Amino acid sequence: EKGGYEHFMLKEMHEQPKAVKDTLTPRIKNGDVVIEELGMTDEEIRAIRKIFIVACGSAYHTGVTSKYIFEKLARIPVEVDLASEFRYRDPILPENTLVVIVSQSGETADTLAALRLAKEKGVRTLGIVNVVGSSIAREADNVMYTWAGPEIAVATTKAYSTQLIAQYLLAMKFAKVRGTVSQNDFDAMIQSLERLPEQISLLLSHKENVQRFANRYLAAEHVFFIGRGIDYAISMEGSLKLKEISYIHSEAYAAGELKHGTISLIEDGRLVVAVLTQPELYKKTISNIQEVKTRGAFVMAVTTVGNTEVEKVADYVVYLPETNPIFANSLAIIPLQLFGYYVSIGRGLDVDKPRNLAKSVTVE
Ligand code: F6R
């Protein structure tokens, strides 16, 4: 059942190229993004004034990423909410709001309650769901399925990757219809998307390097992940992956926030993972790396090939293949998933079933 892999998580990480492809390919037709199940006319898409993305955990992290992408490409304001917060804060949902609910299981109690609240308020809802026929899939006005297939490991990997793809496609569709993206840029994005599966495979094939590095940090007590913009969203997911399966305390910080408190926790030998995939922010994050290095941190950087400046400041660098920076999460998350996985098994833990956690959280 594990297809020759030692754990479901390892198997599912390796299924990501296929899961991404299966979620992407049916929705790209003749160089265009076609999402029939969206059930919205171009006129309806143009009328949307605001988008809420509501989810829990890793699914929420995909929403944080796609906020940057939606706002950049389609120029629509996006709010991202944790479902458990959204449902109790009496959210303001004007007409022409679209509420996007993201869930692998389609059964997460808070996420389902958030969907019901949005429907009660009379706004349009769209589910991005992996489990076919689940509660969220049945109750949302429309549902866009992610085609990750069954995910068994508690820590999500392939479902996360497909949730990102679904939201990239959605943002591109909105941008195209609203005329906020040029045809040239759009065509280049399609090409970048189509290269992702192969690029993910390449990163997976370097897993032994990540393992070797992870083995040096099995006894870490605290790990900090830093980044800016989309790199901050990637940091959140990288940090969650590590902590939930390794039981090592880790936190993600917006790199610019470090000096507002967190930097006091940096001391000799502390591991800091820096994510740099957004070229316009490289310089800023590099200066944050210097700040933690000065205080004795050991820095692992995940960055895009060509950013050789990072080598001058970081201790260990993982290079990602070139892509459109808006899609960088899909690549940067791979070494971070692998890092969490190898730290967990290196510590002898039950990586597929971490303590206290359930795959589907059906109670609030
Ligand atoms: C972390 C993880 C969780 C889920 C969260 C939402 O690896 O898997 O944080 O992302 O519980 O679950 P779904 O997507 O089923 O609503």
From TrEMBL:
Q: Which reaction does it catalyse?
A: D-fructose 6-phosphate + L-glutamine = D-glucosamine 6-phosphate + L-glutamate
The answer to whether the entry has keyword Translocase is: no
Q: Give every SIS domain span.
A: 41-180, 213-354
* Tagged with keyword Repeat: yes
Principal location: cytoplasm
GO terms, molecular function = carbohydrate derivative binding; glutamine-fructose-6-phosphate transaminase (isomerizing) activity
Location within or outside the cell = Cytoplasm
Q: Which UniProt keywords apply?
A: Aminotransferase, Cytoplasm, Glutamine amidotransferase, Repeat, Transferase
Recorded protein name is Glutamine--fructose-6-phosphate aminotransferase [isomerizing]
The encoding gene: glmS_2
Q: Which residues of the full protein are shown?
A: 245 to 608 of 608
